[in-house]
Amino acid sequence: MQIIGITGGIGSGKSMVLSYLKDCGAYIVETDKLAHHLMEPDMPAYLRIVECFGYTILNDDRTINRNVLGGIVFSDEAKLKQLNEIVHPAVKKYIIDDIKRVRSDGKIDYYVIEAALLIQDGYREICDTIWFIYTDEQTRIKRLVAGRGKTAKDYEAVIKNQDDEDFYRANCDVVIDNSNDFESTQNVINDLLNK
Predict the structure, then answer these.
(1) Cβ count near 154 (within 10 Å)
(2) What value does the mean pLDDT take over residues 72-78?
(3) pTM
């Protein structure tokens, strides 16, 4: 089983790539979604988050109110760091255990981990290969405005806060240009999977 890391900036088309890989039979783990799952009641990160941030972050049904928690951590860098130090290791541990489980089943050829901060969070040691999904900035902004509804200026600000293309190119094994039609991207993916 090959472990493939997928990363890239906002609007680069990582979701399209993941959807195609899923159609090819790959097992997909999106770290953001997994983090939300691990923050549900009785999950590993949940108890520690409530201990650190108190019961005021909970909804009536005991779930974490992510808007309230976000309001606390995004206005205080130390609290954001504290939250990340709870969630990120829990996500990574889950993935390491999950890889063992999936590998032992012997039915999956490709285990795919998607994360915007895949490299920064130390997934290099877990992945056999890391793919950078590249899309030029103007195309990314056009896609984001059409698909998510904020202004071009909003997305320009988000992109400026992310690592630049050079960082990804220097730290990834494969660069997939997803700036044009998706059929070209599919052809590149097929070639990579068939190697």
Answers:
(1) 14
(2) 89
(3) 0.88
* Residue 139 CB contacts under 8 Å (≥ 6 apart), including other chains: 11, 179
The dihedral sign for the CA sequence 152, 148, 34, 78: positive
Query: What span, in angstroms and rounded, lies between the C-alpha atoms of 177 and 165?
Result: 12
Positive/negative CA dihedral, 55, 59, 63, 64: negative
Distance CA 59, CA 66 (A): 9
Quick one: pLDDT band at residue 1, thresholds 50, 70, 90?
very high
Distance of CA 182 to the CA centre of its chain: 20
3-state secondary structure 109-176: CEEEEECCCCCCCCHHHCCCEEEEEECCHHHHHHHHHHHHCCCHHHHHHHHHCCCCHHHHHHHCCEEE
Cα–Cα distance measured from residue 32 to residue 35, given in angstroms and rounded to the nearest whole number: 5
What are the structural domains of the chain? 1-26+110-195 (3.40.50.300), 33-108 (3.40.50.300)
